[in-house]
Automatic annotation (TrEMBL):
<keyword id="KW-0805">Transcription regulation</keyword>
<dbReference type="InterPro" id="IPR000792">
    <property type="entry name" value="Tscrpt_reg_LuxR_C"/>
</dbReference>
<keyword id="KW-0597">Phosphoprotein</keyword>
<feature type="domain" description="Response regulatory">
    <location>
        <begin position="3"/>
        <end position="119"/>
    </location>
</feature>
<feature type="domain" description="HTH luxR-type">
    <location>
        <begin position="151"/>
        <end position="216"/>
    </location>
</feature>
<dbReference type="GO" id="GO:0000160">
    <property type="term" value="P:phosphorelay signal transduction system"/>
</dbReference>
<dbReference type="Pfam" id="PF00072">
    <property type="entry name" value="Response_reg"/>
</dbReference>
<dbReference type="GO" id="GO:0003677">
    <property type="term" value="F:DNA binding"/>
</dbReference>
<dbReference type="Pfam" id="PF00196">
    <property type="entry name" value="GerE"/>
</dbReference>
<dbReference type="InterPro" id="IPR016032">
    <property type="entry name" value="Sig_transdc_resp-reg_C-effctor"/>
</dbReference>
<dbReference type="InterPro" id="IPR039420">
    <property type="entry name" value="WalR-like"/>
</dbReference>
<dbReference type="InterPro" id="IPR011006">
    <property type="entry name" value="CheY-like_superfamily"/>
</dbReference>
<keyword id="KW-0804">Transcription</keyword>
<dbReference type="GO" id="GO:0006355">
    <property type="term" value="P:regulation of DNA-templated transcription"/>
</dbReference>
<protein>
    <submittedName>
        <fullName>Response regulator</fullName>
    </submittedName>
</protein>
<feature type="modified residue" description="4-aspartylphosphate">
    <location>
        <position position="54"/>
    </location>
</feature>
<dbReference type="InterPro" id="IPR058245">
    <property type="entry name" value="NreC/VraR/RcsB-like_REC"/>
</dbReference>
Length: 223
């Protein structure tokens, strides 16, 4: 069973998410929270597998709540839910340690699939959303001289193939696209991705994308 904590300041939104989640035999809602401070407290008390986190809430918002939950070092992973616009809050939440990003008007099956993907330890941000997010916030990634400091040491742990795969991840490619580009089996790509995440200390694919930009391996111009 995958356990969840639903965080949203709108009661009807929480009810809708709960009804959807509880329609699935493998998902269970442990509790709800109406603001970020309550979310941090409830996440500590309940230890859910996944926290469905709204971003814009009064008081402690979803970004700060995500940061605190991740910093606590617990088992919970955060799936950010926000409006259709890929605003700065979504980017900030990913930087704070969220494992994924979905818009609130996603189809029910997309949300359910996203919950399961995040619970399994991967990221739920679809490649097309990754590209849109990076397109909008590319200027916030340090590149060039700013990114060179320390980059070589971080990247030296990767093999040449792993650098190629990380570059592709940074460009928003999914495993199928990477496999086709490098003539590899998808299972081999998954193995490469797992090793890359371990070597660079990334929790998931989203953090790998951010790493690729922060080290200058991928730049807005190279995309």
């Amino acid at each position: 069973m995958t356990t969840l904590l639903i965080v949203d300041d709108h009661p009807l939104q929480r009810m809708g998410f709960r009804m959807l989640v509880e329609s699935q035999p493998d998902l269970v809602v442990l509790g709800e929270a109406e603001n970020g401070a309550d979310a941090v407290r409830r996440a500590t008390e309940l230890g859910p597998d996944v926290v469905l986190m709204d971003v814009r809430m009064p008081g402690v918002d979803g970004i700060e709540a995500t940061r605190r939950i991740i910093a606590a070092g617990g088992r919970s992973r955060v799936l950010v839910l926000t409006t259709f616009d890929l605003d700065e809050y979504a980017y900030a939440a990913l930087r704070a340690g969220a494992s994924g990003f979905l818009v609130k008007d996603a189809q029910p099956e997309e949300l359910l699939a996203g919950i399961r993907v995040v619970a399994a330890g991967d990221a739920v941000v679809a490649p097309k959303l990754t590209r849109r997010l990076l397109d909008r916030f590319a200027d916030q990634f340090p590149v060039g001289d700013e990114a060179e400091a320390g980059a070589d040491a971080q990247l030296d742990v990767l093999t040449e193939r792993e650098r190629e795969v990380l570059t592709a991840i940074g460009k928003g490619w999914n495993n199928t696209e990477i496999a086709e580009r490098f003539h590899l089996a998808e299972s081999t790509v998954k193995t490469h991705v797992g090793r890359i995440l371990a070597k660079i200390g990334a929790r998931d694919r989203v953090q790998a994308v951010i790493f690729a930009y922060n080290t200058g391996l991928v730049s807005p111009e190279s995309r």
